[in-house]
Amino acid sequence: MVPNTDAEPSKPFLWKIRVQAMQNQVAIVMCNRVGKEGDVTFAGQSVVVAPYGNVVSKADDQEQLIIADIDLTQTAAARKQRPFLELRRPEWYD
To answer: Is the pLDDT reported for residue 62 higher than 70?
Structure first.
């Protein structure tokens, strides 16, 4: 993930999104706004991450449109190669 505001560190935020994509074996698209609203400055840096956690496309801190191709076959391949979802035990969830 990338930070919502410019006051947050960007690298840990991006890693959170990348790890979620890898653990859930899905592509993740995170859209963030840019500019100021009151005392808050939004960071922008929207991102598209593939099921293996690699960044497909990432914006900067300016308003822009990201267009990215997502290969849906990567989801099936990732789930076959790393069967993390099979290890989950939803019956243990509260």
So the answer is: yes
Burial 53-90 (b: 16+ CB within 10 A, else e): beebebbebeeeeeeeebeeebbeebbeeeeeeeeeee
Band of residue 2 on the pLDDT scale cut at 50, 70, 90: very low
**Tokens at residue 69, please?**
């191709």
Backbone angle region of 92, left / alpha / beta, with phi > 0 → left and psi within -120 to 50 → alpha: alpha
**Model confidence, pTM:** 0.80
Residue with tokens 């074996």: 25
Q: Could you tell me the two tokens for 80?
A: 């076959």
The overall average pLDDT reported for the chain is 88
Q: Tell the burial category of 29 from Cβ atoms under 10 Å away from its Cβ (0-12, 13-18, 19+).
A: middle
Helix (H) or strand (E) holding 77, with range, is helix 73-81
